[in-house]
């Protein structure tokens, strides 16, 4: 419910971001508009945002429809991905339909077949992302830190409570929202080993008018 999407190409106009945990790897997923030639000014803005996201991506996942023959547009996307110099995994969607993709199309880019409709191949894609990220080396991820099992659980709980608070904005009382956010801060503190001073919490939640 975060965005209006259809099967019509060109209807994705903005980027959608989500923080997720894949194995022991915390990642920020960014879904972008597809890359193609367009005369529509709004779609063109979305495509420009896609170009900007590509420049800062550590790993690129170009998604293709494996049930249709590849076009020049697909070739252009792959070329653009290669020009960034970033690692990539080609995601071939619609694996539940007959495969019309060309096996040699992706050159040196590894590919994974998935079905977004039925969820098949998603585990393999997650494993491929984790393995590809580890092959790059931690130094390529700047401040990225690998989490242990306990820390990974705390990270997942923090994300869950933050999402719950986000979805509750406008629907729940402020004290319930602040309770979720305080829980998220405590879970993150379990990862960093830092305790949160009550004065910091007071400054964070002073605008919530708790109890009203």
Keywords:
alpha/beta; two-stranded antiparallel ribbon; 3-stranded parallel beta sheet; 6 helices; 43% helix; 2 domains; Rossmann fold; 212 residues; elongated
Q: What portion of residues belong to β-strands?
A: 5-15%
Neighbour order of strands in the largest sheet: 3-4-5
The CATH class of the largest domain turns out to be Alpha Beta
Main sheet attributes: strand count, strand direction, barrel closure: 3 strands, parallel
The shape is elongated
Q: Count of helical segments?
A: 6
Distance between the termini: 29 Å
Low-pLDDT runs: 138-144
* Name given to the CATH homologous superfamily of the largest domain: P-loop containing nucleotide triphosphate hydrolases
Say what the CATH topology of the largest domain is.
Answer: Rossmann fold
Number of strands: 5
Radius of gyration over all CA atoms, rounded: 20 Å
Structural class: alpha/beta
Helix amount, in percent?
40-55%
Number of domain modules: 2
The ordered H/E elements are: EEHEHEEHHHH
Mean pLDDT: 72
Can you summarize this structure?
The chain has helices at residues 41-56, 72-84, 122-136, 149-168, 174-192, 198-205; strands at 16-22, 25-31, 63-65, 90-93, 111-113. The protein is an alpha/beta fold.
Provide structural commentary.
This protein is of the alpha/beta class. The chain folds into 2 domains: 16-141, P-loop containing nucleotide triphosphate hydrolases (Rossmann fold); 149-205. 43% of the residues lie in helices and 11% in strands. The protein contains 6 helices and 5 strands, in the order ββαβαββαααα. The chain has a 3-stranded parallel beta sheet, with helices on one face. It has a two-stranded antiparallel sheet with strand order 1-2. Strand 1 (16-22) and strand 2 form a beta hairpin. Helix 4 packs antiparallel against helix 5. The protein is elongated, with a radius of gyration of 20 Å. The chain starts with 15 loop residues before the first strand and ends in a 7-residue tail after the last helix. Residues 138-144 have low confidence and may be disordered.
């Amino acid at each position: 419910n975060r965005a209006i999407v259809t099967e019509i190409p060109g209807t994705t106009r903005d980027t959608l971001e989500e923080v997720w945990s894949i194995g022991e790897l915390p990642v920020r997923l960014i879904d972008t508009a597809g890359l193609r030639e367009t005369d529509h000014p709004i779609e063109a803005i979305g495509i420009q945002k896609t170009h900007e996201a590509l420049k800062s991506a550590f790993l690129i996942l170009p998604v293709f429809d494996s049930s249709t023959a590849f076009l020049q547009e697909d070739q252009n996307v792959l070329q653009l991905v290669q020009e960034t110099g970033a690692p990539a995994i080609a995601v071939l969607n619609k694996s539940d339909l007959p495969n019309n993709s060309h096996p040699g199309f992706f050159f040196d880019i590894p590919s994974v077949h998935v079905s977004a409709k039925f969820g098949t191949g998603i585990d393999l894609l997650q494993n491929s992302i984790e393995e590809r990220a580890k092959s790059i080396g931690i130094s390529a991820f700047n401040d990225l830190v690998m989490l242990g099992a306990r820390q990974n659980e705390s990270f997942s709980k923090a994300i869950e409570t933050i999402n719950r608070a986000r979805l509750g904005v406008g629907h729940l009382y402020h004290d319930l929202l602040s309770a979720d956010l305080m829980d998220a801060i405590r879970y993150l503190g379990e990862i960093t080993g830092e305790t949160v001073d009550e004065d910091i919490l007071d400054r964070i939640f002073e605008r919530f008018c708790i109890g009203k």
